[in-house]
Amino acid sequence: MIPALSIRQPWAWPIVHGHKNIENRDWSTPFRDQLLVHAGLTMTRAYYDQITEELGNASMLSASGLPSYEDLPRGGLVGWTRIVDCVEHSASKWKQEGSFGFVLRDSRPIPFVPWKGRLQFFNVPEHALEAPCHEAR
Question: Per residue, what are the HEC states of the chain?
Fold first, then answer.
């Protein structure tokens, strides 16, 4: 089994493409290892527009740096990352005040694999990454 964590788009994309080095959560974790990044199924157009505007205004990631709303994969596995620490304070531009930050390294995308996400960490069988065997949504 491979550990995974579901992350709402458009946040999963900058993580697996090496831009976002912190995942903000309201809970701490002792977990330190590699895991699959799952892109959550839910993302409204209004939320996407709001986040891309905020990222552009903060010069964190240009709006042209993100795929279009229609092209962001949702509802499946999209990449790998490694949690190397969990911190309350960080100099990272991605760290939100008052949250825990999972410090991420070695992130990279994978071809999209449709998969149902879950809350917190969850396990994915190794065969899930072998085409064409995928779990139904």
Answer: CEEEEEECCCCHHHHHCCCCCEEEECCCCCCCEEEEEEECCCCCHHHHHHHHHHHHHCCCCCHHHCCCHHHCCCCEEEEEEEEEEEECCCCCCCCCCCCEEEEEEEEEEEEEEECCCCCCEEEECHHHHCCCCCCCC
Enumerate the β-bridge partners of residue 64: none
Residue 45 tokens, joined: 């157009």
State the Cα–Cα distance between residues 72 and 69, nearest whole angstrom: 6
What would you measure as the largest C-alpha separation in the chain, in angstroms?
42
CA distance to 9, 22, 52, 71, 114, per residue, from 68 (Å): 11, 22, 10, 5, 19
Q: For tokens 């509802």, what's the residue?
A: 75
**pLDDT tens digits, one per residue of 78-136:** 999 999 999 999 999 899 888 899 999 999 999 999 999 999 999 999 988 886 544 44
Q: pLDDT tens, 51-66?
A: 988 888 777 775 457 8
Sign of CA dihedral 102, 106, 112, 113: negative
